[in-house]
């Protein structure tokens, strides 16, 4: 059996074509097109910080996951600061000073946002207090009206 006949060859050609398309399509999905750091420790720091900072355009993605122009600029800025020898805390502080606490993907617990963190509990307590007070007021009013108030 000759495997170079047209049906076998076209199946082989289709398989090779699909394999090549997959191989060349995967790099097109890459978000960070910059060359990786030569030092694996620096690359790990870069990736960690990229997952800790929020894309201010997308707001639901980290700068590592976003393809927005601002995210690209922030990744470049982080890369340059790491290359310049800045610590992770210095980089985070720079970003917070420049863009505010919102740039942090996981917000810090600071006195400024204690109310934000406590608001759900405070609202629950307030609702419970108002509910209990309302029920007691209704019960006191029903007692004051007496048992004959319900009869006509």
List keywords for this structure.
Helicase, Ruva Protein, domain 3; 152 residues
If you had to describe this structure to a student in words, what would you say it looks like?
This protein has 152 residues and is an all-alpha fold. The protein folds into three domains: 1-30; 35-108, Helicase, Ruva Protein, domain 3 (Orthogonal Bundle), CATH 1.10.8; 112-147. The chain has helices at 6-25, 40-52, 69-83, 88-99, 114-145. The mean pLDDT is 82.
Summarize the structure.
The chain is mainly α and 152 residues long.
Topology at a glance:
Layout: H1 6-25, H2 40-52, H3 69-83, H4 88-99, H5 114-145
Helix pairs in contact: 2-3
Query: Whole-Å distance between the termini?
Result: 104 Å
Task: Tell me the β content.
Answer: under 5%
Number of domains: 3
Helices, by number, come to: 5
Supply the CATH class of the largest domain: Mainly Alpha
- Helicity range: 55-70%
Rounded to an integer in angstroms, the radius of gyration calculated over CA atoms is: 31 Å
Biggest sheet, open or closed, and with what strands and sense?
none
* CATH homologous superfamily title of the largest domain: Cytochrome C biogenesis protein
Uncertain runs are none
Q: What is the overall silhouette?
A: elongated
Order of helices and strands: HHHHH
Task: Tally the beta strands.
Answer: 0
Q: Structural class, from helix and strand content?
A: mainly alpha
Name of the CATH architecture of the largest domain = Orthogonal Bundle
What is the fold-level CATH name, i.e. the topology of the largest domain?
A: Helicase, Ruva Protein, domain 3
Mean pLDDT: 82
């Amino acid at each position: 059996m000759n495997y170079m006949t047209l049906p076998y060859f076209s199946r082989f050609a289709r398989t090779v074509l699909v394999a090549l398309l997959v191989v060349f399509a995967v790099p097109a999905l890459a978000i960070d097109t910059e060359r990786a750091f030569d030092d694996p420790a620096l690359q790990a720091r870069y990736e960690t910080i990229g997952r800790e900072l929020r894309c201010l355009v997308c707001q639901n993605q980290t700068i590592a996951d976003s393809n927005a122009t601002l995210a690209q600029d922030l990744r470049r800025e982080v890369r340059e600061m790491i290359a310049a020898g800045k610590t992770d805390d210095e980089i985070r502080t720079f970003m917070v000073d420049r863009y505010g606490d919102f740039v942090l993907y996981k917000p810090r617990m600071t006195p400024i946002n204690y109310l934000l963190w406590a608001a759900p509990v405070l609202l629950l307590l307030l609702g419970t207090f108002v509910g209990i007070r309302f029920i007691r007021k209704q019960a006191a009013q029903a007692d004051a009206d007496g048992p004959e108030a319900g009869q006509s």
